[in-house]
Design goal:
The protein is built from 7 helices and 11 strands. The protein has 255 residues and is α+β, with helices and mostly antiparallel strands. The protein folds into 2 domains: 2-157, PAS domain (Beta-Lactamase), CATH 3.30.450; 170-255, Winged helix-like DNA-binding domain superfamily/Winged helix DNA-binding domain (Arc Repressor Mutant, subunit A). The strands form 4 sheets. Strands 6-5-11-10-7 form a 5-stranded antiparallel sheet.
Amino acid sequence: MLASAKPVCVHTPRRGCEWGPFSVTITAPRPSASDAPLLVVDTDLVIRDVNPALLEVTARADGELLGTPLFEAFPDNPDDSQATSVADLSASYERVFRGARRDYMPVHRYDISSSDAPGAFVRRFWTAVTTPLHDETGHLFGALHHVEEVTSIVEPIWDRRPSSPAGLDMDQQTWTLLVTALAFEALGHRQARMTAEQLQHALASRIVIEQAKGMIAREGISIDRAFERLRRHARRRSANIHDVARAVVELGLSV
């Protein structure tokens, strides 16, 4: 579910899709990663919504993209005469709108404007999946675009299209598919590392809290009462309970 209080499509029988400041919930498949860069366009390819992750990965300010035609916001790199970014993405959207089904793009180069040097572009590589969006009546009104920026994974090998291990020359399509597979493998490992780090942090936080509860309970109260005192102290000071627990354990804070 993608919830939005920004301009969204409301389909009317007479006038079709109207965009206005309504608060609705759009029912659509959404990538599982909560920090996935997401962008919503209407069927005219005008940007109607973006999330903070998309703004961060494209170095754009909040509100800068809303209401802007997609390819005005993200044009081809004018310094690259061979650029096909706009054409390739246009073809993907055409497949989505024509077939009303999800479209996957393999690793592709799509340069974006530099935030440090106005007028300059920086080389970027992406994978993307675009999903059609329908209203309650089944009317197609736009698409949800999910990208993953894979430049650090892909760039070192992108220009090195070699012969295959068997000595046979790889065509560009085969090479692109291979690089895409490698990028997804690396993304999987990256996500696994992030999950492991999050779990480790949660475990460490729980251990400190349990230690603090035990120290407070030495005053002759139950573990539950000790936790309640810890939580109340954190709440009154608008502090993180883990930070308060660590202060109890390491600094002898009395709560």
